Amino acid sequence: MDNFDLIDLLCVIDACVSDRSAGRIVPMSRAVEELRVLTGDFVSSDEDAANALTQVALKRGCAVLFDERAGADIVG
């Protein structure tokens, strides 16, 4: 979480959480993208952003869905 402000992480988690019958779920690909847009940080790795967001999501009682698909950034 050193690279990101806690308030930014909280805002992103609150914006991305979806209430489902299985509980409060945060899709990580969406959360990482939202964090990038909010902060303008396109330099930090996806892994660093996902780790910071995951810590906050878990502390807020949310489940985390790691939904990034291999090759999703390849345009065919």
Which short descriptors sum up this protein?
alpha+beta, 3 helices, three-stranded mixed sheet, 76 residues
Brief description of this entry?
This protein has one domain (6-63). It is 49% helix and 14% strand.
Q: Strands, helices and their partners?
A:
Elements lengths: L5 H11 L1 E3 L2 E5 H12 L6 H14 L3 E3 L11
Parallel strand pairs: 2-3
Antiparallel strand pairs: 1-2
Helix pairs in contact: 1-2, 1-3, 2-3
Percent in strands: 5-15%
> What percentage of residues falls in helices of 4 or more residues?
40-55%
Total count of domains: 1
Task: Return the average pLDDT rounded to an integer.
Answer: 87
Largest beta-sheet characterization: 3 strands, mixed
Amino- and carboxy-terminal Cα gap: 34 Å
Tally of alpha and pi helices: 3
Q: Low-confidence runs (pLDDT<50, min 5 residues)?
A: none
What this model shows, in words?
The protein is an alpha+beta fold and 76 residues long. It has one domain. The protein contains three helices and three strands. The chain has helices spanning 6-16, 28-39, 46-59; strands at residues 18-20, 23-27, 63-65. A three-stranded mixed beta sheet has the order 1-2-3. Strand 1 (18-20) and strand 2 (23-27) form a beta hairpin. It is globular, with a radius of gyration of 12 Å. The termini are far apart. The model has no long low-confidence stretch (mean pLDDT 87).
